[in-house]
Design a protein that fits this description.
306 residues; alpha+beta; 6-stranded mixed beta sheet; 4-stranded antiparallel beta sheet; 10 helices
């Protein structure tokens, strides 16, 4: 029997990899507001996403496979322990019979357990790529599936400037938020989120300041100066090298330096992309063993590929 046009189109689609970026998430500010009975902490966080990203590629295959490459692939969990594989399985469970065997490849450019949402962003990118491969229009269900994988995954699915509340599931994208030149720096020390939360001395803190009416440079600086990351003090106690990173960013000219998320990556905010690149180069000469990268955050009107 001759193959139909539909079958031929399906074979062509299976042979064409679908790629999605998994951008680093930077928590510009983070307040710990309480704790639920199930142990999840209630947060309020202003987060942005950067041009610096991991990369996911998926492709129809004869059997399931997962492979990782890139400088931080040795540190990433392998096989079923990786959130990318968990994302595949969760999508299959939500849409039975829709997703056939797939080959998944992760190009890991972001450090692991570093407070920049690498694993969560990888899972979000995998959900997007796999749903596209399978022709699934998941809509709001994708965020529901993502939340089952981790509290940060719905934020990473949004991947634009946002204010997150609750355990991370209540998301309000921000309009008019500018692109920010940043330097990200990590001293090469991993720190688990659970360990940092366990070291918190106060789990019921004040909310972040009210948002400004516009996001001019002056308004942004004033707001960030009043904000904070409640996880930074316990992380500093657990990992003193974080303090060295913050000091190096300030010395390099950052107008604000703060830890992102639960650490150990810190960010420095600079006036221009050129200034950020110069600062990153100078820091790399002084601290060649650190992971240091100049990048720019995505503005409200920017979109991640696909």
């Amino acid at each position: 029997m001759p193959r139909t046009d539909t079958a031929l189109a399906g074979e062509a689609a299976a042979a064409t990899p679908i790629g999605r970026s998994a951008p680093a998430k930077v928590n510009l500010a983070l307040a710990v507001r309480g704790r639920r009975d199930d142990g999840y902490h209630l947060l309020q966080s202003l987060a942005v996403f950067t041009q610096l990203a991991d990369r996911i590629e998926v492709q129809g295959a004869g059997e399931d496979s997962f492979a990782a490459g890139g400088p931080f692939s040795p540190d990433a969990p392998a096989g079923d322990g990786n959130l990318v594989v968990a994302a595949r399985d969760a999508l299959r469970a939500a849409f039975p019979g829709r997703l056939g065997p797939v080959a998944i490849r992760l190009h890991k450019l972001l450090p692991v357990a570093a407070g920049i949402g690498g694993g969560s962003s990888d899972a979000a990118a995998a959900l997007k790529a796999l749903s596209s491969l399978a022709g699934i229009s998941a809509g709001d269900r994708l965020a529901e599936i993502g939340l089952g994988l981790g509290a940060d995954v719905p934020m990473c699915l949004t991947a634009r400037p946002l204010m997150a509340r609750g355990i991370g599931e209540s998301i309000a994208p921000l309009d008019g938020f500018p692109a920010l030149p940043l330097v990200l720096a990590n001293p090469g020390v991993a720190l688990s989120t659970a360990t940092v939360f366990a070291a918190l001395q106060d789990r019921e803190n004040a909310p972040l300041p009210p948002l400004p009416r516009n996001w001019s440079a002056d308004a942004l600086d004033a707001w960030l100066a009043r904000a904070r990351n409640d996880l930074e003090p316990p992380a500093l106690r657990l990992s003193p090298p974080i303090g060295n990173v913050l000091a190096a960013l300030r010395q390099a000219g950052a107008r604000l330096a703060r830890m992102s998320g639960s650490g150990t990556t810190c960010f420095g905010l600079f006036d221009t992309a050129q200034a950020a690149r110069r600062a990153a180069a100078a820091m790399a000469r002084s601290e060649p063993r650190w992971w240091i990268a100049a990048t720019t955050s995505l503005a409200s009107g920017d979109t991640v590929d696909g």
